[in-house]
Amino acid sequence: MDNLLAEFFRHHYPNPPASSQQIAAFEARMGWRLDAEMRAFYLHSNGGGLFAPMPNPKYGILPLDEIQRARVAIRGRDQESAGPASHFTLVDMQDTDFVIVDVARRENDRYPLLDAFHETYPDETPLIASSFGTFLEKALQSRGRTFWLSSGLLRPRIS
């Protein structure tokens, strides 16, 4: 993570870091703990923009106080029919499209990141990366493109 954080700070738009107290308050409010990679990121930068500054970056990594249940952010309601309670927004991709974290599927002490395309959420949430660190690495290498769409993990066409 150190190299990824250094690159993020050199070439992108980090926010000031979150404090340990802010992280503890976030975890208490949400009912889940950040994994080690996410915790390292937020202790260095409480969100920020990749490739462009806030408020309209290509990838907008949300500050802790803006992370919410994906079903609320995308569908506007906190009901099981609107998506799993374990899905939380992490990266704003604009136009109510998000990269989300699934806190119910922690593997190797890391949460997977999924594509939450507003047209198909919650029915289709393809895996983007097995961890935040993997996601950040691929995003930083993407030159601002949505890397999972150009790598063959395509969203279905909506007609």
TrEMBL record:
**Which residues does the UniProt record annotate as the domain Knr4/Smi1-like?**
17-138
User: InterPro entries in the record, alphabetically?
Assistant: Knr4/Smi1-like_dom, Knr4/Smi1-like_sf
What name does the UniProt record give this protein?
Answer: Knr4/Smi1-like domain-containing protein
Q: Which organism is it from?
A: Corallococcus coralloides
